[in-house]
TrEMBL record:
It holds the Pfam family NIPSNAP. GO terms for cellular component: mitochondrion. It comes from Malurus elegans (Red-winged fairywren). PANTHER family: NIPSNAP-RELATED, PROTEIN NIPSNAP HOMOLOG 3B. One of its GO terms (biological process) is mitophagy. This is NPS3A protein. Residues 13-111, 122-221 form the NIPSNAP domain.
Length: 223
């Protein structure tokens, strides 16, 4: 993180979280896989997942925009897209209990990554940091992330810092070969003095943390 601008361009990511009615989750996922091509005609999808652990009946999806004018144009086009509105939105909305969205930027020391292969699992970790922003806790947070990367057991996909939504929130997206591989790696990391020291330094700025294990949908670019 940085005390100055996050990046040199206007690119941002909209993070959408939907709570799906428990009895309709399978139906919702099938609809997304079937009709998402109508949505993809308008803007870039980074990834689409459903939660397996840490939360129930939730889906996460992340969309990339060049700037806010781009998002406005996309939203207007979607409202006028008869296929998207008629075949997906009108049928899918009754399956959704709640929607939440955030606008976030990639931190300047992180580029959006890709997993080394398909077939793994993703971990979505949300850190609520103390008020004060990156000027207060950015350096310690980055050190803690790098300490985990250096263990080699996990792959960093992206670190997102919120601009709209609950402020001082950082979302970190990791990839692992499997849930068991992640568990083994975490166990080893907890015994690594470098990781312990970095986490101890950063946790003094932490208000709360929530983890979710995510499974990518068939249509997700990140699989």
């Amino acid at each position: 993180l940085a005390t100055g601008p996050r990046q040199n361009n206007g690119v941002f990511y909209e993070i959408r979280t939907y709570d799906i009615k428990p009895a309709r989750m399978k139906e919702f996922v099938e609809m997304v896989n079937k009709y998402i091509h109508f949505r993809l005609a308008h803007s870039e999808l980074v990834g689409f997942w459903y939660t397996e652990l840490g939360a129930m009946n939730k889906v996460f999806h992340i969309w990339k925009y060049d700037n806010f004018a781009h998002r406005t144009a996309v939203r207007q086009a979607l409202a006028n897209d008869k296929d998207w509105q008629g075949k997906f939105i009108s049928v899918a909305l009754p399956l959704v209990e709640k929607q939440h969205n955030e606008v976030a930027y990639l931190v300047p020391w992180c580029q959006l990554g890709k997993p080394p292969k398909e077939g793994g699992v993703y971990e979505w970790v949300t850190f609520q940091m103390k008020p004060g922003g990156p000027a207060l806790w950015g350096q310690a947070f980055r050190a803690a992330i790098n300490a985990h990367i250096n263990t080699g057991y996990t792959k960093l996909i992206g670190v997102f810092h919120t601009e709209y939504g609950l402020l001082n929130t950082v979302h970190v997206l990791w990839w692992n070969e499997s849930a068991d591989h992640r568990a083994s790696g975490r166990h080893s990391a907890h015994e690594d003095a470098r990781v312990v020291a970095a986490v101890r330094d950063s946790v003094r700025f932490l208000e709360s943390q929530q983890n979710a294990l995510l499974i990518p949908l068939q249509c997700s670019p990140l699989k």
